[in-house]
Task: structure prediction
Amino acid sequence: MKGGVAVLDFGSQYNQLIVRRVREMGTYCELFPGDAGLGEILTMEPSALILSGGPSSVYGDDAPRPAPGVLDVNIPILGICYGMQLLALHGKGRVEGGHQGEYGPALLHHRGDSRLFDSIESGLRAWMSHGDRVVMVPPEYDVVAWTDSLPIAAMANPERGRYGVQFHPEVNHTVFGRKLLENFVLGISGTGRNWNMETFAEEAVQKVRLELEDGGKVILGLSGGVDSSVVAALLHRAVPGRFVPIFIDNGLLRMGEKETVVKTFRDHFGMPLEVIDGSGEFLRALSGVSDPEKKRRIIGRVFIELFEKAASGIEGITHLAQGTLYPDVIESVSFKGPSATIKSHHNVGGLPERMKLKLLEPLRELFKDEVRELGLRLGLPPALVYRHPFPGPGLAVRILGDVTVADLEILRKADRIFVDYLKENDLYDEIWQAFAVLLPVRTVGVMGDERTYDRVIALRAVTSTDGMTADWYRMDSEHLAAISSAIVNNVKGVNRVVYDVSTKPPGTIEWE
Ligand code: XMP
Result:
């Protein structure tokens, strides 16, 4: 996509938020590494540049800096926090450490004549998070805002379209932050609104057609999750006769999952869905394995084997489609580099190289909520578009230890009761992810006059925005009581239910 705003990433924890805020205005925005070359940045033909914050000190030996020429480019630039300090340094102002850092809210006063603060009252709350500060603005800049403890909170050089703010307009705690970003993007830089899912869908369809213009075919591992479903709907629209979705039943799915996928994609959309029953292979390979990472590796390997086998029977495949999203792309271009792997999440790694296929990733510019919007526009049912995430290794990471057919049966029933209850009681959409886990312990109970010695189900329900951090959902005790008794009364082999009250970190969302 061309036109819009380029954001240079200097390592701020808020860098994704800047991109999101700009897109929420209806303007395309893309993140580049802080040291990206001018040529690379200009390929997107941006009409404005934003320099993100970051943890470094501009005078530090290994401080990340923009590439030569970037700060002299002839489009407006807004520097946020570290980004403002870079602008100050570049213009021969002065930045200093050693002052008391400021972390948290501060009341921001402004001069009233800078376009950056158009329609923004003076004295509103802004969010600070900085150690260093600008102590002298460059000669051609003016100080346009301050707080009680920070004499230079914003600076401006309107002739050259250069602006710097020490606070973070991208976070919600800065109450006027959205307006300030709009003033910069839509007002000062005159960037148009060029981003909505309608035009995105049209462009994405054209791109796929162009990529496959030589007549190749594209395959997709359709899991029934949101991302692969939206990719499927898009490819079906773009190249209907040359798109082959493959659904592999790994025997680790929830109750009724395969049937729903077949109903939606084969019956409703009329896609030529290939359904492969791999449950025997997966369960045999998992037999006796209890280590979570080993389970993941085995599932990934068997998936690739079955997928390759299915694909090799189809003539003329040239491309493999994947539901990669923008946060994954950002993660890999980010200044901080890919974060440490806590769990190996990528289930199809290595597949395109081995199969000598070209990769097609039509969602790689989108955030999750944009993917959902696109899915609705492409005609996917809301119940599918707003489903909770489900891990690739499926129920295998929710049966702690060895995975058996009998345990899968128990877990499926308990999970179904839990999730159905949440849907029936309008709780499902308040929760980011909810599921049952089968624990490998037995506890003593009493049912009627009989002593029981049965298994334990743990219920997990979390709130989150992206799965990176999560809090446990504060479920009403009456609901917990109803779910617990429904499970114990209807699932043979379970006599106890517990509710997980751990946050992430230090826990993770899944138990394995
Ligand atoms: P954790 O347990 O790491 O999970 O807090 C974060 C999110 O990722 C999902 N998850 C996975 N997804 N393959 C996947 O495709 C995996 O191996 C995997 N492990 C966890 C998890 O359900 C949650 O949404």
